[in-house]
């Protein structure tokens, strides 16, 4: 049923966000400033992609990419 609605059956979207965020943090135990900087970068990247979507210049790989962007915007 989940695949018919184009929704994920697992928490792959969350895992994807965690992996991308981990690369932004760059260390296992960041201090508060590194963490805030990573949040700001993640937010900027999501806003940039959403602007590309709205202007029609972003090419989707699949619907999951769009869902991930909308969810990451709600988190931030």
Give your account of this protein's structure.
The chain contains three helices and no strands. The chain is globular, with a radius of gyration of 14 Å. It has one domain. The mean pLDDT is 79. Helix 1 packs across helix 2 and helix 2 packs across helix 3. With 76 residues, the chain is mostly helical.
Protein structure class: mainly alpha
Mean pLDDT: 79
The biggest sheet amounts to: none
Low-pLDDT runs of 5+ residues are: none
- Gross morphology is globular
CA-atom Rg in angstroms? 14 Å
The domain tally reads 1
Roughly what fraction of the amino acids lie in strands? Answer: under 5%
SSE order, one letter for each helix or strand = HHH
Distance between the first and last residues' Cα: 29 Å
Percentage of residues in helical conformation: 55-70%
Q: How many DSSP helices?
A: 3
Report the oligomer. Answer: single chain
Brief synopsis:
The protein is mainly alpha-helical.
Could you give the topology of this structure?
Blueprint: H1 12-25, H2 32-55, H3 63-75
Notable traits:
mainly alpha; globular
